[in-house]
Write a structure and sequence with these properties.
Mean pLDDT: 91
Number of strands: 11
Structural class: mainly beta
Amino acid sequence: QVQLVESGGGLVQPGRSLRLSCLGTGFIFGDYAMGWFRQAPGKQREFVTSMSGTGYTTTDARLLKGRFTVARDNAKRTAYLQMNALKTEDTAVYYCARAKTVSVGLEPEEFDYWGQGTQVTVSS
């Protein structure tokens, strides 16, 4: 049974950092790309970043401009999202997702399993 469990969210002041983690179980972790999406209140879910099983990454540069970095440790079955210089507009529920293949995906339909989400609130 495939399961994805996010952790690391919380309340943080603008300009600070957070690192989200996503533990994947029930599948061979390194055989799949992993992605991060976010959804703010009243908005559609949007793509943040994705990393292939072999480490290739793609990030929505328009949104993030180098502030967010994705990483993974296949031995620990965990994907990470390092978020720096957080802004109030980064407030959202952040979801990790497993892609349908080893290659990076950008669209929600390219992912078949989703975590429950973790809330990130950026506020002073």
